[in-house]
Amino acid sequence: MTNQEHRRKKMSGSRRKRNKNIAIRNYSTQGILNCVYCTKELVTSNFTLDHFIPTSKFKKQKPSESPHRTSNLVVCCVECNDAKADLLPQEFLSILRKENLIPKKDIKIYSINKTLLLEI
Known about the structure:
single chain, two-stranded antiparallel ribbon, 6 strands
């Protein structure tokens, strides 16, 4: 591994930690978070950050922006993050609704920097 690759890997780890800290600060109440998709309660040590618009589809929708911006990251459980894969949020939420895993009520999803991303 070259020095440049090592620095890039180290930076991505610190950036990931910084983004998790932003999420905890903005969402956490008494150290508890909720998955934005299934609303399951998460402990601050056991959650993931999901790219709301998947990185594989982001450049097609917003070519001038980075998919790793805090405005494209949401707090979710590991199960939802794995199940969503590279689906768009509307596609994933419609699957969850069909399987009755989430209520069929209004949903508001915010990014980790408190930007409203979706309201359905």
